[in-house]
Specification:
Elements: E1 5-8, H1 13-24, E2 29-32, H2 49-64, E3 68-77, H3 98-108, E4 118-128, E5 135-145, E6 161-163, E7 168-169, H4 175-181, H5 183-191, H6 196-203
Helix pairs in contact: 4-5
Length: 204
Amino acid sequence: MENNTIIIATGNKGKAKEFEHLFKKYGYAIKTLLDFPELDDVEETGTTFQENALLKAEEISKKMNKIVLADDSGLEVDALNGQPGIYSARFAGEHGNDEKNNKKLLGELVGLPKDKRTANFHCSLVLVGPDRSPLFVEGEVNGYILEEPRGSNGFGYDPLFYVPALKKSMAELTNEEKNEISHRANAIKQLEKHPWEALDQELK
């Protein structure tokens, strides 16, 4: 493991790609669970984003004896009382089926006007390592749910999530645009409010 490599406790290819871009400006490469097929997935049994992120980070850190960053994130729709929330990846029952999840979400919101379709993407990040207390940060981006998909970039609910400030759906944004305003980007920016030199030493 190189000194400038961060382990991210995710097997999601879309998230891995985003983290790669987000940490590149800090001079870090990343490795994910996709790089360690011998590691089993961690069951997400928490009731909040923060709990699930901590479960993943602690389990992988314990197995590898390394500092690990984990995230749990998802879509919270106001009209659905915060759903799909922590169940975002399996909203339609099958884990990771973006098409089915998006179709179910549209079905739940049929007939609702724009002002009733407000939502946010939420990200909880936790940094865990041997002999250290967990560091938690969070990030969000606000928008609303479109009535039909727009754009082909991104993953998950990106084609349905409209960002008013940019007048585009998440899936219409370039990687650079998304990495400036996304919930994961905003969570990582919170890390900058902690002494980065201290984190830098720990990550190395």
